[in-house]
Amino acid sequence: GKGIAVLTSGGDSQGMNGAVRAVVRMGLYVGANVFFIKEGYQGMVDGGDNIVEANWSSVSGIIHKGGTVIGSARCKAFRDREGRTKAAKNLVKRGITNLVVIGGDGSLTGANLFRQDWPALLQLLVKKGEITEEEQKTYSHLNIVGMVGSIDNDFCGTDMTIGTDSALHRIIEAVDAIASTAYSHQRCFILEVMGRHCGYLALVAALSSEADFVFIPENPPPENWGEKICKKLQQERSMGQRLNIIIVAEGAIDQQDVPITAEGVKKVIVDKLGFDTRVTVLGHVQRGGSPSAFDRLLGCRMGAEAVLALMEATPETEPCVISLDGNQAVRVPLMGCVLKTQAVARALQDHRWDDAVQMRGRS
Ligand code: ADP
User: How far apart are CA 83 and CA 341, in angstroms?
Assistant: First the structure.
């Protein structure tokens, strides 16, 4: 059978295990030899025990676990030709010519480069006498498929990334817990949530928790936001509201690019209104805990589709990333999505906020 390997790379997210499980089981179902690559690209470069053949039972009992049981890493060596040459040798020696990469836009860019570079890498390995000409011929082409694991929902071309829904569950649990104590003491709570270039988590958390204010990178407030927010908070208190919730995305800025932090917002409120105000930075709690049913299912659907895409791939097929379109797992061009995702980041940098939001759309 064909050799398929699966790895997780970059930041971890809940639901990656469901995706790995589906790749393994679907791969075995279609008669492939399936391998785990542990510790992301680092494991592919290092080889040895990092690349292990999987069987049906090696993915039992992982779907409910957060993070990624096969490990993830950032890997400097894979950015260089030398590292990628070692990685290619490790794959060829195990008969692997199909790769499923679960990661962010950086990891998918790396996968695409690896695929493009593959014939040249094999040529190099033949020259060095590390693989035979026979092996070069047999394994002449590498197929890749991507899936996006990210709690931020920051990737263009998919309705949801794997992990976002679970992170939202964590955030909402925290806001609900805080709201009850805030109510008791008539406090104002400011929560900082993750999302460097993407305010999705902050926005959806704010909508689902009746927050009074939300700060996101895509919609920087005007300079006088301090006055506005204080006016609104005061109004609400005078109408009998006992608590206030304000959500700040990690990457929030004002229109002059000055970061808006939870501490900064607190200072404004305390200075102007003297409210009892507390800050909670949620941090890695958002990545933790068990994946939601949605993320488990998303991982399953995408993983199965990834294997089917690999089975149908030819050297001429453009590499794809599996995305969610409504409730269907579909294939979309990998590099198109990566480039669009990077264009969104640039648009935000250049203060073209409306462009950024428009480009985030599915297609
Ligand atoms: P993410 O995948 O979450 O965006 P990174 O950007 O840190 O995270 O990428 C994860 C890993 O992918 C890097 O540590 C590196 O090994 C690999 N990678 C990222 N960009 C490239 C690139 N341009 N060329 C080769 N490898 C890359």
Answer: 26
